[in-house]
Fold this sequence. Notes:
single chain, mainly alpha, 76% helix, 0% strand
Amino acid sequence: MNTSAMSEERELLINPVVGENVIHNTKTITDIRSLTSSVLGVAAGILGLESLMGFAFYLVGSFFVSVLMLFLLANGQSKHYFRGSADIWTHEVFGTTCLSSFVLTWTLFYNLVRA
């Protein structure tokens, strides 16, 4: 057997997280957060939340989504699917895509309901 293949096999036995799988899992989190941030924005706009209450709603909703992802997608063990255990809690919560889509849908639906 090739020595590089043996070293890769030993690395996988020591550290069983595969890079391609981590990238796929991170992309899945990004997709879920993008969708749920828009849904949270719609809900905040329909509820008529303003200012800090709207952002608090986003943080609580993001925490709830993180808990659901931890138990439904990662079976309660995020370290087996991600490089760091904090990735499932913090990845893309304050990212430009998710936060801006939350604010966009929040203001859109707030103005549609109040118009």
